[in-house]
Amino acid sequence: MHGLIHPLILALFAALLLPACSAVRLGYGNADSLTRWWIDQYLDLSPEQDALTRERLARLTDWHRKTQLPDYVTLLRQGKAFAASQPKVGDALALGDELTRRVRVLAEQATPDVADLVATLTPAQIHHIAARHAEKNAELAKEMRLAEGEAAQHKARYKRSLERAEYWLGDFSDEQENALRRMVEARDPGGRFWFDERLRRQRELLDLMREVQRDRPPRERIIALLRDYTARFDLPPDPARRAQAQAMRLAAAELTVAVLAMATPAQRAHAGQKFDDLIHDFTELSRENTPR
């Protein structure tokens, strides 16, 4: 996810992509500090805003540790069972929906605090956000090879897909790599569509901030605006584009199932150990007192 609305979500769920359990615990233990740093990169926080952000993030991470991490363990156990089985496409879609639901719980909890920060933004800070968006968008477009045509985009998509698959399953054989490449090339690379959706979300967020800065609405109105923004964050409001997004998510679920279908017993055991390590770490983190 991108934009000011979800910085803590990025920090928390990034733990699932870290290479070692010690890194998961280190990253989560510093989630509020990392998130405050991330926000400052976009906003150039004033001392008053930094104090507000520090206080609210500490409260949010305490809430998250106590109430959400045990639920994430449940989700990880579902993921382990998914990776160990011969899942169907519907199973992959359902698991994705479960992840989305948990992200929305976190977003809803954070929304009043985000509203209080948004209410303090200056025109210069909003301009700074737009400039950071442009910088990051250029980096992402280059990584996704959007200016190089569909063949190059397929290569970029294949690289990302292989990295994710090997994180969970371990090294792929040449035969598996070739099979994955063929599966990726048979699908719409999707890069341009999702990049355009990123731009849409950024435009809507900037419009929201400018409205708040211009009109100075009451707090409840800002909260309502943010909730409306979050509600359409992951799927386009336009019916045709929403249908396209859903079709691409179906294709991604099909790819996930196909990759698991060619996994060896050793690779499935590798995935099981990954999930066990995360389950252990998240369980231990949920029992710890947040260090202050």
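[next item in queue]
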Amino acid sequence: MRLPPIAPHALTAEQRALYQDMRAGIAGNFNAFQSERDDGALIGPWNAWLHEPAIGKAIWDLTMAMTANAVLPDKVRQIVILVVGARYDAAYEIYAHIAVAEREDMSPERLATLTADLKPVDLAPDESIAFDVAYALVRGGVLPEPVYRLALATFGQHGLNEMIYLVGLYAMVSTTLNGFNVPVPERE
């Protein structure tokens, strides 16, 4: 880990406001996995965002806007996020979203295949399209027109927009995690 976690008592006023906002949001939306140490210091991408609170707040606001305005089914969202995490080999991202996907009753076989950067054979049609969108985007270049049209017909413009933004957001999260070598906590 390249950025030390900041204990709550050591936060600046700017960091404290972001910490409190992130902690409340994590408790309500991202509570399937470990996000803080015993002393209350945040781990995962949240620690990195606290080190640069002006940037961190912007990323956190985007994260919460993506959560509050979600129209995609949760399983579809988790497939997209795991495709991104697998492509970037972002260990904490994979750890966290496996925990979330397990709550969505995703099978161990599906999770193993997704995290191996492969397409599971048991995807529902909408999940398969979501996989294809995310898989194409994380490899770079323009999303192929047939994939775009199929996703548009399946999810509508708002849903497809969300999916594209979700890939971008989690690419940034994965890059943050990898850049700062954020470790994975022990699974309980």
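[queue empty]
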